[in-house]
Specification:
By secondary structure, this protein is α/β, with parallel strands linked by helices. 40% of the residues lie in helices and 14% in strands. The protein is built from 15 helices and 13 strands. Strand 5, helix 3 and strand 6 form a beta-alpha-beta unit. Helix 5 packs across helix 6 and helix 8 crosses helix 11. Bound molecules: flavin mononucleotide. The site of flavin mononucleotide has 18 residues, from strand 10.
């Protein structure tokens, strides 16, 4: 059988294109309301998507110390949102982001176990260490923790969470538990001390599906140990292939096989019935980008102030690289800008499209061609679809791209299972699996 695509719907408040919320078809005023999220989730489920994915936001976007408007709103609390969506969907996987840097494992383990039970086994956790250092100011810390230390804490965090999920035997359901089926955790580590069992029965899926999206070297190592799905930003076919192969190689060091992970790069498709229409839409959206917002977004993403530069100058790629080692996402953007000889305003328009993610402009057939090539060429196992604006561009995807993928035998006609693990083809973890993998971590 031909390899099958996995599809995530990556929701972003208002839109993925920075000006998408200004598109006349977007219900910008209602993106914090249940109707908006319910309609989008149900549309994704009609399109047989594997999962719905929402990020977290632990800080407000600022410029020069002041809240910066003219942007979309930030993410709603992911687990609260997904809990509500679990009651208006029946099959769609529900993946939410929470940070290991700013929470406690007991609290998070109970939240995801609850979501997994309420949804009948559809929960996933995007485990992040938090990209924005300013978040520390909202969590009683003057200074953000060093990146490598955050991942050491993250590993201990997953050790505790998986021990808690495994602390009650499968089948010891409800609150009438035989003590013989309870295995209290006794964890005394560098960051956490946890004693006792989880107050919630073992999740339907054993553990929620563990997702990882960090791109730094310690982030990639963490993914090799922890991730069952990897969300990543990849814009180049060959680089994406190499990324997937190197993830598999790293996993092997922890005794893990390639079929234990699903790699899903972001893909933001702007679709038109003809190429010309898609390009016209792109121009229309580009014209809606407020110039100050574009330069702000570019400066934030590159970690380099471009506010005082002439927007018509070429992006000073070498100067930016020399000032600070770019993050993985910034590096991708700089490489693209240098290759295409983009000006500062041209780079702002590029990043406005989908931040550092792969953006596509064209017809549904052309998009299906790209997705087929990436899947069959070994560059991914699926995509995290990022509509430039909601709900209209998602409707076009569901109505025109999904049937085309199905016709080519690349995507399910209907759900075959009920849980997110079943959709993604991931095994249910047996108790103690994570602690066995930890034995492979060098001291
Ligand atoms: C698709 C995708 C979604 C992400 N969502 C979040 C998010 O919601 N919250 C967050 O703090 N970071 C998010 N990130 C960023 C990373 O996980 C972030 O880079 C990480 O937490 C910091 O680790 P790193 O330095 O290894 O990249 C996302 C990344 C990708 C590719």
């Amino acid at each position: 059988m031909t390899r099958q695509l996995h599809l995530g719907l990556f929701i972003y408040p208002g839109a993925h294109h920075i000006a998408g919320w200004r598109h006349p078809s977007t219900p910008a005023a209602s993106v914090t309301g249940l109707d908006f999220y319910r309609d989008v989730a149900q549309l994704a489920e009609r399109g047989k998507f594997d999962l719905f994915f929402v990020g977290d936001t632990l800080f407000t976007r600022e410029k020069d110390g002041r809240f910066f408007g003219r942007q979309t709103t930030s993410n709603l609390d992911p687990v609260s949102l997904l809990s509500v969506l679990s009651s208006v969907t029946t099959k769609l996987g529900l993946v939410g982001t929470l940070s290991t840097t700013y929470h406690e494992p007991y609290e998070i383990a109970a939240k995801y176990a609850t979501l997994d039970h309420l949804s009948g086994g559809r929960a996933g956790w995007n485990v992040v260490t938090t990209w924005e250092d300013k978040a520390s100011l909202n969590f009683s810390r003057e200074q953000a923790m060093a990146k490598a230390d955050r991942y050491v804490r993250g590993r201990e965090f997953i050790d505790v969470c998986t021990s808690l999920w495994d602390s009650i035997d499968d089948g010891a359901a409800g609150f009438l538990r035989d003590p013989a089926h309870v295995h209290p955790v006794a964890h005394h580590g560098d960051s956490f001390a946890v004693s006792g069992a989880l107050p919630v029965p073992r999740p339907v899926q054993g553990w929620p599906v563990l997702v990882q999206a960090g791109g730094s070297p310690p982030g990639l190592e963490f993914a090799a140990l922890v991730a069952e799905a990897v969300f990543t930003a990849q814009t180049d076919f060959e680089i994406a292939r190499a990324f997937r192969a190197s993830t598999h190689d790293r996993m092997a060091r922890y005794g893990r096989r390639p079929d234990e992970v699903v790699i899903m790069p972001g893909l933001s498709p702007l679709l038109g019935s003809t190429e010309a229409e898609a390009q016209r839409l792109e121009q229309e959206l580009g014209d809606l980008v407020h110039p100050e917002v574009g330069i702000w977004m570019l400066s934030e993403n590159l970690g380099f102030s471009l506010y005082d530069r002439d927007p018509d100058d070429l992006l000073p790629v070498d100067e930016i690289r020399a000032a600070k080692k770019p993050t993985a996402n910034a590096d991708m953007l700089l490489t693209n800008a240098a290759r295409q000889k983009l000006t500062i305003s041209g780079s702002a328009r590029l990043i406005a499209r989908s931040r550092a993610h792969h953006s596509f402009v064209g017809t549904p057939e052309q998009l299906a061609d790209l997705m087929e090539r990436w899947l069959l060429g070994g560059a991914c196992d699926g995509f995290n679809v990022m509509p430039p604006y909601f709900p209209q561009q998602l409707s076009v995807f569901v109505e025109q791209v999904v049937p085309e993928l199905q016709r080519r035998g690349l995507f399910r006609e209907d759900y075959e299972g009920n849980t997110l693990r079943e959709h993604l083809g991931l095994a249910r973890p047996e108790p103690g699996r994570f602690q066995r993998m930890l034995k492979h971590v060098p001291a």
